[in-house]
Known about the structure:
The chain has a single domain, classed as Alpha/Beta hydrolase fold, catalytic domain (Rossmann fold, 3-Layer(aba) Sandwich).
Amino acid sequence: MISSLNDIPYSQTPQRALRLDLRIPRAEKRPPLILFIPMGGMRVCEKEGAPWWPTEHGFAMASIECRVRSEVTAPASIHDCKAAVRWLRANADEYGFNGNAIGAWGRSAGGLLASLLATSGEVAALEGEGGHAGVSSKIQAACDECGAPHDFSYFARPEIKLRFAPVAENLRLYLGGAVEEKPDLARLVSPSTYVSRDCPPVLLIHGDADDIVPVEETIEFHRALQKAGVDASLRILPGAGHSWDEALTRDEVISFFNRTLRRNT
C-alpha cells in the first residue's frame, strides 16, 4: 500500500505558496526518501509529472514545485529546493519516512539542481528564507540525469554558446544576464563551485548524442568530483540524446539509491 498526499504547502514565497506531492510505501518502516525536482529549462516545474516508480522499490518520494524564470532569477530555485529538504527533514517523523536518508533526483535542469543540492551542503548564501531555519538542507545522495551546466563559466566560452545557444539563452534569463556579465552569481549557483570530499555520492547519467546540453561538461564535472574524492559514478549512454527510454537506466538508479540511502536507515 502506498499513501498518496498531494499539494502539501512546504514554503511561502513572495510570489506564491510552494507545494509538494508525497508518496509513502507503508510496507516498510521509515523508508528512505527520494526528492524529485521536475524542473525543465528553469522555465517549467510540474510536480504532477514525477516518475513515481521508485515507490515500487520501497522508497518514499516527494515531487516539488519550484519557482521558475518567469517569476524569479537565480538563486531562487535552489532556495526552493533547500526549503523542501528542510521541510521534509523537519516533518519526517510525522509522515513516516527517514529524514536522515534523503536523496535528490532530477533530469536536465532538475539534474543541475540535484547536483547543486549535493555539493552545496549548508552554504548560507543558498539557503534562502523558505522556513525551518536551523534544519539541515544536506542530502545523502544525488542522481543527475543529463543536467548541465555544472560550471556556468563553461557557457561563457564563445564556441559553446554558439553550439548550445538555447541553453545559453536559458542561463541568460535564469541569471538575469549572460554568464560573462554575472560572474559572481554564475559562480554562486554552479555545483562545481562547492565540490569537496564532503559531498555525498553522486550518479551522473548522460547521452553521448545529446544536442541540448553538452555531455563533455558532465564529464568534466565527474572528473572534478572524483579528484576531490567524492563517490561519483558516470554512465554515458551511447546514441542517447537529451532523453531516453527510462528502462535503460531504471535498475541503475534504484541500485544507486539502495546503496547510498539504505545505509542511513
